Structure prediction request, 270 residues.
Amino acid sequence: MKSLASMHVENLLRTVARTIVLPRYCALGAEDVMEKSVGELVTVADKEAELAIGRGLATLLPSARLIGEEACADAPELLNGLGEGLVWLVDPIDGTGNFAAGRPPFALMVALLEDGLTRQSWILDPLTGVLSYAELGGGAFRNGEQVTTATGRPEERDISGILSEAFLPREQQGLGTTLRARFGSVLPTKRCAGHEYPLVATGERDFAIYWRTLPWDHAAGALFLSEAGGRVLHFDGQPYAPARPKEGLILARNAAMADLLLKVVGQTAM
Prediction:
């Protein structure tokens, strides 16, 4: 059963989605969209949503620090000490490029960290209303229904996954070619981790691979997938931890799939 605190966060995200995010979907003017870095967009909705989520979280747990993606764009030093104490980690609109273009998917994400360990996470798809929630040691849930990943793995010709080829280093440039030759379907990322982590957890995709590992992109989804029975590992097999910066990430629906992908990634870099 969800605690009152977790329900508070869910209600907060739904309210922000309804009052700030969705009214601007397919309704942004040119002046409402900015480039915060090369190829990285931010909208007025991102900024307003982050402020509103921050205010709501502060009333729930005043002792926790708030680290939001948009605040960090202006002040990267906010990430210092991410592994210390209680921290709310907020991605107000994951998939901003999609949101700005008026297309799905995009999501609102919050994770609660304690001394670098993700304790709880929330991912809201505002277009469908589906809320993915996870608690460390307490399982993963989609709109209240528990999610458990499938065991075993299909034949390689039936394996379906997602690959983000952006930012891959030179030694991994052949990874896409290798994966597409070996597995049945390897699709490009839609640049919304809040959409793609649940796809792996529910079995719609068997894996996803990213290079960049910004904590607001991955902390919430990593807990959700892990609590469902999946694996979130770096290319060297070490488990993901949001407070331990390290690039290269494999999402797998279970241990068997993770073992296979680690071998493929390792062989590609040789």
User: Anything to note?
Assistant: The domain at 156-268 is CATH 3.40.190.80 (D-Maltodextrin-Binding Protein; domain 2). Helices lie at 4-21, 44-60, 69-74, 96-101, 175-182, 193-202, 215-228, 255-268. Residues 4-21 form the longest helix (18 residues).
